[in-house]
Design goal:
CATH superfamily of the largest domain: Intergrase catalytic core
Oligomer: single chain
Order of helices and strands: HHHHHHHHEEEHHHHHHHHHHHH
Helix content: 55-70%
Number of domains: 4
Largest sheet: 3 strands, antiparallel
CATH topology of the largest domain: hpI Integrase, Chain A
Shape: globular
Structural class: mainly alpha
CATH architecture of the largest domain: Orthogonal Bundle
CATH class of the largest domain: Mainly Alpha
Radius of gyration: 24 Å
Length: 438
């Protein structure tokens, strides 16, 4: 995993003054979030390391150098989404140098990012969401907090960073509204329903947040935060991720649920129940309607079910007169499943805070720097599980490429389909696996 996201074997070098000025410009004048700045910094460190290894000054970079770097990232195993983000950071740096630092040209002008497959958001069913939300049953303060987190994520479609940054002053419980600060510090007002309102009322009542509040607040941000830890600190992205993961494990949905999946589920269920797409766009804080339109493709399943239920000529399927042979059908299906699984795991690691240096980048408010808390350990263990699963998926994809997928690594015989569909997929047939356990 680190090799795919960090293609250099030696420690990263400091950024140039131009790059540091560019990041300051993004933070101060463009209002980019700390998470966006961290991603840009990782991309620029890797880019400047590439230039340094080839003894190329930033001012001397031409289009061919940038193209070579993008090809280098692709060869190192970076995904199209990562290469696109890297190009965005590089383009921003060179344009900043052109406008503010006296550069004579922009070597990224005219360069296009790699095309990426359009990822269809994966939503839970309404029954699965109900199971997840009902999984936290206790009446202690932490249980009340965790219930409120789950209800609010599904009710509003907030991003995990938006929920972590929510302040008490941003809530209006009387009108069931929340002020949310999204990407680029853009503000929007989102409503929430009676279940989320009730869960928030329990958390903010005398048996909830007050119990976890310290005698004296360490920081003003902690005092203003809606969600706090057992130590009275503002809850971080990683801690919220762990809350969602625990709830999913209780009901057997750990392979399907992340905070972002609840966002997808909120949008998909709204559209399935007739919400206007422009309303969903505003609720989620999408800058472009095309992003929201991805959810309409998910809801096409509902369209098909309703059509077959209602149309008189669609209720019974007529058996086809001719069979259409499909070559390598199983291999195609498995590749699609594995590609989807890889995309999901990479997204989960990114959401959890897995940075370009091959390790978790914890929020500054996750815990005191001198302590390693249980929540921190859980987040690290979860990241290790996700990395292990990602490695297994990438090994399986390589086997598909060389024609050995689905055969036992010991005896070479076919592996049963049920063992291939397990997570992670088995590398051995049932006989060899049984021998290995003896």
């Amino acid at each position: 995993m680190p090799d795919a996201d960090w293609p250099f074997s030696h420690p990263p070098r400091p950024l140039s003054s131009d790059a540091e000025e560019f990041l300051s410009y993004l933070a101060i004048e463009r209002g980019r979030s700390p998470h966006s700045l961290s991603a840009y910094r990782s991309d620029l460190v890797a880019y400047e390391q590439f230039l340094s290894d080839r003894q190329i000054d930033l001012e001397a970079v031409g289009p061919n150098v940038v193209e070579d770097y993008l090809a280098y990232l692709h060869a190192a195993g970076r995904k199209a989404t990562s290469v696109k983000r890297a190009l965005s950071a590089i383009r921003g740096l060179h344009r900043f140098c052109l406008d503010e630092r006296g550069a004579v040209s922009d070597p990224t002008e005219g360069l296009r990012p790699p095309r990426q497959a359009e990822a269809i958001p994966k939503a839970l069913t309404e029954e699965e969401v109900a199971r997840l939300l009902a999984s936290v049953r206790g009446l202690d303060a932490r249980s009340r907090r965790d219930r409120a987190i789950l209800e609010l994520l599904y009710a509003t479609g907030m991003r995990i960073s938006e929920l972590a940054g929510l302040r008490l002053a941003d809530l209006d419980l009387n009108r069931s509204l929340a002020i949310v600060f999204g990407k680029g510090s853009k503000e929007r007002v989102v409503p929430f329903g009676r279940y989320a309102e009730a869960a928030l009322g329990e958390w903010l009542g005398p048996a909830g947040r007050v119990v976890l509040a310290p005698p004296r607040w360490a920081r003003r941000a902690d005092e203003e935060a809606v969600f706090i830890s057992s130590r009275g600190r503002q809850l971080s992205r990683q801690a919220i991720w762990v809350v969602v993961r625990r709830a999913a494990e209780r009901v057997g949905l750990e392979h399907k649920v992340t905070p972002h999946v609840l966002r997808h589920s909120c949008a998909t269920h709204l559209l399935e129940h007739g919400a206007d797409i422009r309303v969903v766009q505003e609720l989620l804080g999408h800058a472009a309607i095309t992003t929201t339109q991805l959810y309409t493709k998910v809801s096409n399943d509902l369209l098909r079910r309703e059509y077959e239920r209602a149309h008189p000529r669609a209720r019974r399927r007529v058996q086809a007169q001719y069979a259409v042979p499909v070559a390598n059908d199983a291999a195609v299906d498995y590749r699609s499943l594995l590609e989807d699984e890889r995309h999901s795991l990479v997204h989960q690691l990114s959401e959890l805070g897995f940075g370009g240096a091959g390790k978790l980048e914890f929020d500054s408010n996750f815990a005191d720097s001198s302590q390693v808390t249980a929540e921190r350990g859980e987040a690290e263990a979860l990241a290790a599980q996700l990395q292990e699963a990602l490695h297994a998926v990438e090994v399986a994809l390589r086997k598909l490429d060389n024609g050995t997928y689905g055969t036992c690594e010991r005896c070479g015989k076919p592996i049963a389909e049920a063992r291939l569909e397990a997570k992670p997929a088995s590398a051995y047939c049932i006989v060899c696996a049984s021998v290995g356990r003896r």
